[in-house]
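Newbie here. two chains, one complex. Structure please?
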Amino acid sequence: MALPVRRVAAVAGGLLALLALVAAIRAPVAPVSLTVPFSATPFADADLDGDPATGTWADAISAAIPLENGAPDPYGTATLFAKHDGTYAYFRVDGASDVPWTGPSGEHFWFGVLFAPASVTGHHRSGQDGVFFGDSAYTSAEPLLAVDTDGGRPPLVDASQDTLGTMRVTGSAAPYAFTAEWKRKLVTGDAADVGIVADNTTAYALYASTDSDGGGSNGGTVAHNAVTNDNVVRFETARPWELPTSAIGIAHDPPEGVAPGVQIYVSATLTNATRATVLWRNSTMAADERVPMTNLSRADGTGWVYAAWLPAQPTPTQIRYGIDASGPQGSRVESFFLTVAGSSPSGITPEENGAWLLTVASSLAMSVSVMAVLYWYVGRRLRREGR
Amino acid sequence: MVDPRVIHSITIEACTGFLLLAGAAVIVKLGSDWWMRNLRGRVTRFDRWAIAASRFAEPASYFALVAGVIATFVSMVTGSLAWPADQLAASETVRNKILITTISQSLFIGAVVLRFHYRFELWMTRGTGVAFAVLVLSGTALMILQNSVAGHLAGKGSLIDDFLQWFGINTHPMWAFPAWASLTILVAFPLAAAAVGLGLRRQARRLGPAPSPSGGTNTAG
């Protein structure tokens, strides 16, 4: 019997098309194991702006990492850049989303990373640390600043915000490209964060994902927790002798718990310095403002305490600032950041408190009323049954 | 000195255990009563099991309810000692936990009062038994939700998080009705309860006294 040539050609064509489709939809890459290199090259905080063109990333390790969303590429894989300078770890992730970030009520997605000691594998485990960008549970408007969280489900925002960074989304149609850049201290001093030991050996688990289908996101189809990829990260031992040295010392701890509408007091102990200024900008300013620091004529160890007031910020933001100290032996600039948080620990307003108390009272009234009816009903019913 | 948070964890385990036992015992009682009312005589062995389960489940549920209510009050005290009051009041998630605990505890107290007043007879009619079971199981469901909120407070998440997300329940923002809704509930529910109570009383007068246990009536003539 002669083979129907047209049918064979159609089947072969269909198979080829299927193969082409499978080839086009690439599976995400396998989990990675990488060592984050030490780099003495200074990195400006202003370059943690979500723009991949700014900042020094040439000396960072870069690797394609699978995302926990399990989505086919380009949504299921991102490129991680990482390096550290012995004090701070710097990260950048380039990826793609099926929706843009138009606002908390419009189409938006989030990108997040869970980080933990290597023994704590999986999602949302106790002892994990997190950083999230664009989740509308934490972020109500652009710029999409880094939010320091724990690893809970859902992650809770840390009282002490110890990450600085921004995510930027570009593109006019799916896939929308995003770049998230952030830094954090290796050891933040916050018990809620995971401390990083840079010794070439100590391993950490890293899980990155995006989400666009609801739960802090909206409008897309990507769910954040389809798979588990146990990526392993180590940090190269630091070589502090390679870092630029200076005779001038700057000892400073950024203020915490800063609320909107309150002036920000910045103080530092400076050694071998005769004058100092604070260069600062919030997340919406295009250029730095300069504020002189005053010598308080108060000795602290081998240095003197200098202080300055930064203006009150009307809305939640992150402030990047550098303390520029100079003296006869030269000058030195050291950068810091602080978070102006929307809700302080006592962030419940009197109106919200009143509404909550009324809710408790009305809920009690509701349950007591229902039980009273039940009580009468049971009594009536048992009497009717002669019990 | 023992960390107050450890003591709180222990008391939480105690009240959760007792109240879950109460819920489970009520389900067993409900199931065995259903079997005896609907399928009695079909399988003799199951009849025996149902009678035995019913005999143990009812007192077990009552005991567990009383113990659970007492343990919950104890855990409220240990919880308030474990964290500063202003810190508790400042957390929206803690407030959610307080709200749910208040409601579930009131339901459990109501169940204890019902069982104490009407005793075992509560289970003698299908309607009252089911009503009592619904009351206890509603309290149990709320207690499970409150423990899930507690898991988030501890930063550990919860086993039922996927369900919560499916139902769109976010345990972090403070749950509060709008003021007008709270005020409406505050007025409408007690009024409605009073109206229902009066209606039941009127119905009872119209129907006359209850029949005697022997099956006759006490009516004259």
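Moderator note: Chain A touches chain B through 48 residues (CB under 8 Å). DSSP finds two helices and 20 strands in chain A. Thread marked as resolved.
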